[in-house]
Structure formats: C-alpha cells, structure tokens
Write a structure and sequence with these properties.
Elements (H helix, E strand, L loop, with lengths): L5 H10 L9 E9 L4 E4 L2 E5 L2 E7 L1 E8 L6 E7 L5 E7 L4 E9 L4 E4 L2 E5 L2 E7 L1 E8 L6 E7 L5 E6 L5 E8 L4 E4 L2 E5 L2 E6 L2 E8 L6 E7 L4 E7 L5 E8 L4 E4 L2 E5 L2 E6 L2 E8 L6 E7 L4 E7 L5 E8 L4 E4 L2 E5 L14 E5 L3 E8 L6 E7 L4 E7 L8 E4 L4 E9 L5 E6 L2 E5 L6 E4 L9
Parallel strand pairs: 1-7, 8-14, 15-21, 22-28, 29-35
Antiparallel strand pairs: 1-4, 2-3, 2-5, 5-6, 8-11, 9-10, 9-12, 12-13, 15-18, 16-17, 16-19, 19-20, 22-25, 23-24, 23-26, 26-27, 29-32, 30-31, 30-33, 33-34, 36-37, 36-40, 37-38, 38-39
C-alpha cells in the first residue's frame, strides 16, 4: 500500500468542508382576545389560539392571526439563542363598515339600531359587521327605516328622498292675482305654492272682484303634490234701458230686446250699442260699456220726430180719427156748463197732410184736412152738428116711446129725447122693455 505524504494529507483535510454545528430550537406561545383565532407562522398554520408552537428556529418569524368579523393581525417575532421562547398576546379589532347617509332635504336625524348618531349628511365609520337598522326623521317629513347588512369594510351609501308628511299644492288662476284662502287662512294671491297642507280634506277658496268665487274641497294624501289652475267665471252684468216717453223698442247690437223699460240680465262684460226707437220720435243710439258685475241704467230721452195736433170739440166726447185710425176722445172740462171740450193733444210722427175725422153718436161726422210741420202743433177746433136719430124704444103698460137714449140710471129709470129738445124720463117701475133701434144705412147712390 502506497503511503501518502504528510503534505498530501494536509491538502486532503483542507479540501473537505466542515459540517455546521446544530442550530438551537425555540417555541412561541400565542394568545388572542377573543380566543379562537387561526394562527399561521411563516405561512404554516398551527391551529387556533391560544396555542404553543414548538421547534421554531432562532431568528425572525411572521405571525398572522385571523378571526371571522375581526381585522387580521400581523406581528414579527424574533427568537434568539439567549431567548429561544416568546409569548405573543394579540387584541383583535372587529371589522367595522363604512356607511354614508345622504337625505333630501338635509338635516335628517339618524338613528343606528335606536341610538342617535347625528344629522345628514353623515359618515358612520364604526358599524360592526352584521344586520343593522337605520332610522331617519326630520320635522315635516315621514320617517324612513332602512335595513342593511355590513359584510366587510366596503363603503355603503344610503341616499334617501324624504317624503313630506303633508301635501303640496301649486296653485294658479285665470286671470291671475286672485286671493287664496285655505282652511280659513289667507295664503296670498295666485300664482303661489302652498305646502304643509294637512293630509285629508281641505277647503280651498279663490276670489277676485268681478268673478264668481271658486270653492273646492281638496282631498290630499301625505306627500302628494298637485297642480291646480282655477278658471274664474266673470259675474254677469245687468243693463236697464229706460225711455222717455216709455214703450220704446230697445235694440242691443241690432237685436230686439223688448219695450222700455227693460232690464237685461246675465250680460257678459264688454262693449254694446244700444238703440231706442218709438214711433213719432227720433231714434237714439249710443255705445254702452259694461264691466264685470256691474248694474247700470241707460235713459233715452226721445225727441219728437214730427209735429203735434190739438183737437177741441163742441160738444166733448167726440172720437178723433187720424187717417182712419182712432187717436183719442175729447174730454169735457171741469165746468159742465161749458160745451167745448178740453184740448186733446195728439203726436203725429209723419209730417205733411193728414185727414182728421170727428165722430160722435147723434152728431154729423166732420172731416178736416190738416198740415203737420216739424216741431209745430196744429189746432183743430170744430163744432159738430146735432142729428136726431132714434136709437131706443121703451115699452110701458100703456105706451111705447121712441127716441134718442139719453141715460139709463142705476135704478132703471130711462131718459129719452123723444123729439129734438124734448126730454122724457120713464120711471123704472113703469118700464117693461128697453130695445135698441139700429140706424138704417144710408141708401147707396
């Protein structure tokens, strides 16, 4: 066997690597509050706290502790040869959610699970994981309740439009500027917005001078918003037309409305042309302006269109005919001793020539031609010639009387003119019959 040299042995020894000395081992005790958290050291799970983890080498170790609904906890623990054992106590923080609460309008009171938390807009940054109830309230609005679940730290936003606990009415009118009364309270003039109207029935009154009142009962629910435009009805006007002399024919916008005096009701406001016409008088017309709810009178003093006629007769009681139409009867004067009548005044609308006929029983008719001039009065003064025309027969027990009937009084006495100028009165006790005698017509020529 070949022997190695001393130098070769030294070289062989130097070429061989020396083995490292064994490293000392340590241990770590981990406790958590609350208990039961899962423990991982350097990525290796070691069960749930509290726990003691043996056989850990000296040096740095990363400890991660997790528990449902709690924040993860991380710690670095260093084990040394001088201190190979360590104890780690961890207080776990619960996971809390972030909730941002907004309302319209702002300023709503926020309660979380019955506890006051402030007013909106509000950030709740300490809401535990789990189910929660958020209650919102603000004066004048219906309260709102919202249920939510917090699962993690992910922010949640609550955005709520609060519903009024009363109704709102946007009100207008045609025409505008009408007074508004709601439930007996003055609310100003239209257009306007009425809020805070109690739910249920409300009485609305809208009024304006010259228009009929608008009254309505509104049934509104809480939170309801309504728009209403009230169309006001004008109060009609009244027009009374009077004429002097009366009985004039009245026309409004060329439509006949009757003889004056006439009252025209329910007329709409506006401009009208009113005309009055009466035979024998000049027509008169004028514009009339009617306002709402107005009552006015218009008087028409009509001027004569033609002339006049004055008739005086002897005796009185004579019937006067103008162009064949009866125009009146002359009347006796207060003094019966006078044989002439009072003047009979007659208006004649037509100018020019007219025929005047005077008629009285027992007298010969008389015809007179007259000329009527505008605004002038013609006079006819005539004496009629007496005629003795037998017109009555009275029978008594012993006689028969014929003559002109003068009078039959209330007790039955009969007075006859039996001959021209001869008057006889037959007492009622003697009268058997009173018979009329018709005048024989004149023979035709």
């Amino acid at each position: 066997m070949r022997r190695l040299s001393f130098i070769a042995l030294l070289a062989l020894a130097a070429s061989v690597t020396a083995a490292p000395p064994p490293q000392p081992l340590g241990q770590l005790s981990v406790t958590t509050t609350p208990k039961g958290a899962s423990i991982a050291v350097d990525g290796t799970k070691y069960g749930n706290a509290p726990a003691t983890i043996p056989n850990l080498s000296t040096g740095d170790h990363l400890v991660v502790v997790t528990l449902a609904d709690y924040e993860e906890a991380r710690r670095t623990v260093t084990l040394t040869e001088a201190a190979p054992t360590a104890t780690l106590e961890l207080q776990l923080e619960p996971v809390v959610g972030l909730i941002l609460v907004h309302t319209a309008p702002k300023g709503a009171e926020v309660q979380l699970n019955g506890a006051d938390r402030g007013k909106t807009p509000l950030l709740l940054s300490d809401v535990p994981v789990g189910k929660h109830r958020v209650q919102l309230s603000i004066p004048g609005y219906q309260p709102k309740t919202i249920d939510l679940t917090v699962k993690d730290r992910t922010p949640q936003k609550i955005d709520v439009s609060m519903t009024s606990d009363s109704a709102k009415l946007t009100l207008g009118s045609d025409p505008t500027g009408a007074g508004v009364i709601l439930n007996g309270i003055d609310k100003g003039k239209t257009p306007c917005t009425l809020d805070r109207i109690p739910a249920g029935d409300s009485k609305l009154e809208i009024s304006m001078t010259g228009f009929e009142p608008y009254v309505q009962t509104l049934k509104l629910a809480a939170g309801q918003q309504e728009t209403l435009t009230a169309v006001l009805k004008p109060i009609p006007s009244t027009l009374t037309v009077i004429s002097i002399p009366p009985k004039a024919r009245v026309y409004v916008n060329d439509q006949f409305k009757g003889e004056s005096p006439v009252t025209l009701k329910n007329m709409a406001p506006g401009s009208y042309r009113v005309r009055a016409e009466l035979k024998g008088f000049e027509a008169d017309a004028r514009p009339v302006e009617l306002k709402q709810a107005q009552e006015i009178s218009e008087e028409f003093r009509l001027a004569k269109a033609g002339g006049g006629l004055e008739v005086i007769t002897d005796p009185p009681g004579v019937t006067v005919l103008i162009d064949g139409k009866e125009a009146g009867t002359t009347a006796a004067k207060a003094n019966d001793a006078e044989t002439t009548s009072q003047p009979l005044e007659i208006d004649l609308p037509a100018l020019g020539e007219h025929e005047v006929q005077l008629v009285k029983k027992g007298y010969a008719n008389k015809v007179v031609k007259i000329e009527i001039e505008k605004d002038k009065t013609a006079t006819v003064k005539e004496t009629l010639t007496r005629r003795f025309v037998v017109d009555c027969e009275v029978t008594t027990a012993t006689d028969v009387y014929r003559g002109v009937l003068v009078e039959k009084d209330v007790v039955g006495n009969v007075t006859l003119e039996i001959k021209p100028g001869v008057i006889k009165t037959i007492l009622a006790k003697d009268v058997r019959t009173v018979l009329p005698i018709k005048e024989k017509p004149a023979p035709k020529k």
